[in-house]
Every structure is written in C-alpha cells, then in structure tokens.
C-alpha cells in the first residue's frame, strides 16, 4: 500500500518548481491531489502529467492571499471526502541581492506580510475541516536559519521566523484535535534557481559547500520527504522541523 492512499491533499502554488515536485510525489504515493494556484494553464499541464502516470489530480484557480477564495476551495475539497493534507508553497515575493540599507520598505515587508497572510488563511481553512475528522497534516516550507552574510536576502528570513512562530502555535492549538503541523527546512535547492539568475553559480557553490554530504537537496528529495511526513508513518511528528538540508543546517 502506498503512503498516502485515500488521502486528499491540497497543494497551493502547485505550478511552481517545489509545488510540482511535492504534488507529483503525493500523487505517486496514492493521494488525490488538488492543485491550487493562480495560473490555470500550468496547473492543468501538471495535472495531465500526473494522470498520465496513473495518479489523481484536479485543478483550481485560487489566489492563496484571498480569504474567500481559499475558504471556498477548501470547502469544495472537503465535500469530496475531506482535507487530509495542506501544503502552502506559493512564492512570497521576496527581493534578494539588495542590501537592507538600500532596500525599500515595500520590498522588505512584502515576503513577511505575504507569508503570514497566506499561511494563516490556508492553515485555518484546512484545520476547520480537519478538526471534525480528528486528523490531518499541515505542512510549511522554509524554516528559519542563521543570518546569511554572503547574499542579501531581504525580509525572507524574517518571514521564515514568523512562519515558525505560527507553526508552533498551530501545533499547540491543533494537536488535541489530532492535527499535526510540521515545517520542512532546506539549506537551499539549486534546481529552483532560474536560468540566468544573477550569481547563480556562486549561490549553487555556496549551498553545496555548506552541506556535510557534499551535495544539496534536490526537488525529488523534497517531494519524497514531504510525502513521508504527510503520511501516517510520521504520525508522531508535530511541532517539529524536518531538516532536508544534507547537513547545511545544524539544529
């Protein structure tokens, strides 16, 4: 039996690189994946690939920053058998490469506001349906780390710290209802850097150089770990971070 057989999983930002990897892994492990995002065409392409491989996938155009849209979509998924897994992987709109002293307030605060707003909305929507079933998994991505000296990352680390605080609070309040909340942390995924990204080679070398294994996590690695954490085999894990950094992050 596959890890997520019979589970309904919502993946927000499913058309992105990480979202695609996670949604694909969930489907391979037997979950019915509900692909949510703002670009319907890209979601439909992913759904077709998942179905062609024998998986189950449905798509919906959802702005994960819109309260009503998030709630209505979660309600629709719940009507199809409940919400078992929720993973928000939308982009936070962070600006990197600009020193803080040269950064505008709008660019600095955007990832913080975006991350907190979208995660609150999607976690709340999922939890409202999970409580009745007394089970469910809410996954977060990123995780707070040490300040990065080599590259100016703007408000991104502040956003991650805010999400970690939210994860701890969600775990404390939802745990009695059987709902788990876990963050996946990486030290960076070179595959997510677009071609032509300024300083890409230096960033890739920095990510790999900090690892203990001499290699960085791949998108496939993230998908595989996410599927395991979302499964009942990880039922003892909550209020926790899962280190998927090949040793780049030391807890």
UniProtKB/TrEMBL annotation:
Q: Name one GO molecular function term.
A: oxidoreductase activity
Which keywords does the record carry?
Oxidoreductase
Query: Would the keyword Oxidoreductase turn up in this protein's UniProt record?
Result: yes
Q: Does the keyword Oxidoreductase apply?
A: yes
CDD domains from the UniProt entry:
SDR_c (cd05233)
| Family designation | Belongs to the short-chain dehydrogenases/reductases (SDR) family.
Record protein name field? KR domain-containing protein
Q: Which organism's genome codes for this protein?
A: Amycolatopsis balhimycina DSM 5908
